[in-house]
Design a protein that fits this description.
The chain is of the alpha/beta class and 464 residues long. 40% of the residues lie in helices and 14% in strands.
């Protein structure tokens, strides 16, 4: 019996030397009592025999017993030795109750990110090597807020060719994402006396908040099946409108040709300004991409593009094509507080575009996203025929129209199934009035290839 003490107390293994021995013995005895390995009333070996058993000094054991008696874990009585106290050992405090929340999502189907697993690592690496090799020494200095001339030159050419943008390199400003560009422009507009900007009634709150932080109100323009209702601009009395003409975010429609002409007309008639968010203009599937609005009036439209959808949001590279009359103010503001994207990434992107790798990457991704879109449409037609899919001509997301009143429960049900999904309501401007449209915004671009079928399968399970 005696020689089993060390084993049952887990003490024989690695008792530290010196004063640590006493503390370790106390800890082990306490744990053994607390966990029930030593039942109440159990008689402990004498300090001498336990010391021999453990190969430690008798005083150390006697001290440990003394301490545990003082703490109430053990009792020591003349004639009956040292025993485990008979009192009820207080139970371990229960772990704090965690509120019932859905598990961490297995599939993220919220819009925002492209399939980052498809980032063209090796082509980017080659471009980066070439860019680094040929970069002049001055490139490693602080640089200019407008961004590297090498990148602005290739962007001017690319944007004219691919998006119909009229851009001289001197009119391009590189920024750390669309969102930074918007923040800079908002401050410029506020400084110029603007108070409010019209925004589409469905959009992204981070953009509305960026404008609000610059001191601008945002007022919603209704969005319907033809895009933003720009005829409302005169009534709203604002000087600036932020639009997603090529592919309305998130409803997915493109701005009707008549409305494109009307908004440019509004801007030139009133001296207004359109901020054109061309976040995913390259991804059009059923016909040629709709060209940028900026091409119609470069002095009244600020074009903003980004690498966040075409390559990866982590790059934090975007570009604005700024009208002459705003250029000085934009550069002054960007140069004071809002710095620029890293020079090496700018040079790499310039090389990446110039070498044709960007076009190749876009062609490949367009095909891949198109296949995914077709897969989603086919799966839903078969598994959830009551759900209409809209906004699928372009971009990396689709809108799934739901029966009235079901959006919230579908989004919540999806969360319990490990699916992160957003309903359309999440993108609705708070002042947009009471029109209800129940729908899901389903980002089919985000999951990596290997997870895509599983994501669709999980989606079909939660749809009504
Ligand atoms: C509507 C819209 N605009 C712009 C962007 C790009 O923003 P950024 O360049 O700041 O990543 C996104 C990206 O998700 C978007 O959805």
């Amino acid at each position: 019996m005696e020689d089993s003490w060390a084993t049952s107390l887990d003490l024989h293994l690695d008792l530290p030397g010196g004063t640590g021995v006493r503390a370790a013995l106390i800890r082990s005895l306490r744990d053994a009592v607390r966990e029930g390995r030593l039942a109440p009333g159990t008689r402990l070996p004498s300090s001498r025999s336990l010391a021999v058993d453990l190969g430690i000094a008798r005083n150390t054991v006697a001290d440990a017993y003394g301490e545990l008696v003082a703490e109430g874990w053990l009792t020591a009585r003349q004639g009956s030795g040292t025993r485990v106290a008979r009192r009820v050992v207080p139970p371990e405090p229960a772990p704090p109750r965690t509120p019932q929340t859905p598990a961490r999502p297995v599939y993220d189907l919220t819009p925002g990110s492209p399939d980052v697993a498809s980032f063209p690592r090796s082509a980017w690496l080659s471009a980066s090597r070439r860019a680094l090799t040929s970069a002049p020494n001055e490139a490693f200095g602080y640089g200019k807020p407008q961004g590297r001339a090498e990148l602005r030159r290739v962007l001017a050419d690319y944007l004219a060719r691919a998006r119909g943008v009229r851009a001289a390199p001197e009119r391009i400003v590189v920024c750390a994402g669309f969102t930074q560009g918007l923040a800079v422009l908002s401050r410029v507009l506020r400084q110029a006396g603007e108070r409010a900007v019209a925004v589409e009634s469905y959009g992204l709150d981070i953009h509305w908040n960026a404008m609000r932080r610059a001191g601008l109100d945002t007022v919603p323009l209704p969005v319907d099946g033809h895009g933003a209702d720009v005829a409302e601009l005169d009534r709203l009395g604002v000087g600036t409108a932020l639009l997603t003409p090529a592919h309305q975010f998130p409803t997915g429609v493109s701005l009707d040709p008549d409305r494109r002409a009307a908004v440019v007309d509004w801007a030139s008639r009133t001296g207004g300004l359109v901020l054109e968010d061309d976040y995913d203009g390259e991804f059009r599937y059923d016909r040629q991409p709709v060209g940028a609005l900026q091409g119609l009036d470069p002095e009244r439209v600020v074009y903003l593009g980004t690498a966040s959808k075409s390559l990866a949001p982590g790059l934090r590279i975007a570009w604005m094509v700024v009208p002459d009359h705003l250029m000085d103010a934009v550069l002054a503001l960007k140069g004071t507080g809002e710095w620029q994207s890293g020079v090496l990434d700018q040079l790499t992107l310039a090389e990446f575009i110039d070498s044709g790798a960007y076009d190749r990457h876009l062609r490949g991704m367009r095909l891949r996203y198109r296949r995914r879109r077709d897969q989603v449409v086919a799966a839903l037609a078969e598994r959830a025929p009551g759900v209409r899919v809209t906004g699928i001509a372009a971009g990396l997301h689709a809108v799934l129209e739901l029966p009235p009143g079901t959006e919230l429960s579908v989004v919540q049900g999806a969360a319990w199934q490990g699916l992160a999904l957003h309903g359309l309501a999440r993108f609705r401007h708070p002042d947009a009035g009471a029109v209800r449209r129940d729908a899901l915004v389903f980002a089919y671009g985000t999951p990596p290839d290997h997870a895509f079928s599983g994501a669709i399968e999980a989606l079909c399970r939660v749809l009504p």
